[in-house]
Amino acid sequence: xxxxxxxxxxxxxxxxxxxxxxxxxxxxxxxxxxxxxxxxxxxxxxxxxxxxxxxxxxxxxxxxxxxxxxxxxxxxxxxxxxxxxxxxxxxxxxxxxxxxxxxxxxxxxxxxxxxxxxxxxxxxxxxxxxxxxxxxxxxxxxxxxxxxxxxxxxxxxxxxxxxxxxxxxxxxxxxxxxxx
Length: 180
Known about the structure:
Elements: E1 4-14, E2 19-24, E3 38-42, E4 52-54, E5 56-62, E6 65-70, H1 76-80, E7 85-90, E8 111-116, E9 119-131, E10 136-141, E11 152-155, E12 162-166, E13 171-174
């Protein structure tokens, strides 16, 4: 079975011609336009709704967010019926990455090692990432072999805090405070 990825969330209706306000969950939302193989499915806060195929026929920035036009959605009433839905695709639809690049989802489960004056110690595993506006944050939960049972929030600051990421080895090396 192919893993489905949430690529965008439908937040609301926009105008009277069936456009929806969306929160894209991809770095370049414009790549969603015109690709086949997308689906709309109920989001986590929806009670029940049917999943269906979807095609993005228009997409543009609007204020601080994005608005999207989907095939088959012609008016505001139809758009309002999509609120809370998510736009799904498979990993195969994502753009190819250059060597050394990775997707955020590739970081989940990696072990975080801290380099400090006392040597190297295991802080835990990446549970998920948070977007804070200023910078993204790794949520690191303790795991077997970690130095203690504390959850840590580590800012994603390449070179300053995050020193190395090796997805194949399953590790992230950081310089962080172990006594906090």
